[in-house]
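User: Please predict the structure of the protein below. I'd like the answer in structure-token form so I can feed it into my own downstream comparison script.

Assistant: Understood. Taking the following sequence of 269 residues as input:
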Amino acid sequence: MSQEQSNDADDALETKLPAFRLDGKAALVTGASAGLGAAIAIGMAQAGAEVTLMARSRDGLERVAGRIRADGGRCTVIACDVTDTPALREAIGGMAHLDILVNNAGTNFPEPMVEVSEQHLDTILALNVRAVYLVAQAAVRKMLEDPQRARSNGVILNMSSQMGHVGSPNRTVYCMTKHAVEGLTKAMAVELAPHRIRVNSIAPTFVDTPLVRRVVNTPEKRDFVMNRIPMGALARLEDILAAAVYLASPAAAMVTGTSLVVDGGWTAQ
């Protein structure tokens, strides 16, 4: 064995499993009153983060906050509509500290392309693209001005979808917005890397939530979904929050500008 090979072997023996913890981190999760946002907020609190929950529904946020506090976690509630730009900027600008953003708020109205109304088009674009951009912008501004963040990396997680990688019938507007999120994620990652801010997306398949059950509400719709997931099951909330905690943690220190697709194999076909 050469000296170089010996040194490589010694280096390998010194490696340690990186931490999948968020202790001491301040995280903001939008759309946190229910569903994926609530699950991710709970998971990040369980991983040690102090979580700020943001959504329109204060009652929903307080229910999630109650769960987090009952588990011994720390959290703050901000009732704010992310499409209200002045209120959004004031809320994020007023935070004491921010390490992690989970840019999760979004919506969809599945319907044939020829039936999409301008109202539905404008609503989805306003929340899934415009608000996603402005939330990220406000969060990055906060991170850049925060002297405490100089000790560690900042993290932006944009909630995308498998529909940000493929097309699907009755989802033209949604697919368009999620493809936009994927492009935004890559561009942000390149621009913000010198500032030690990592940017990634999470792209789930259909997740077993009350919302998805209301959408996949006929045998035909369920067959359409299940026949396209090689793993043969809907994703669980735990699958998505695990992806979020990993990407936000030091274990993902060299991961930026990519999409973690949690789709049971849908986009592999």
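That's the full token string. The domain at 21-207+237-257 is CATH 3.40.50.720 (Rossmann fold).
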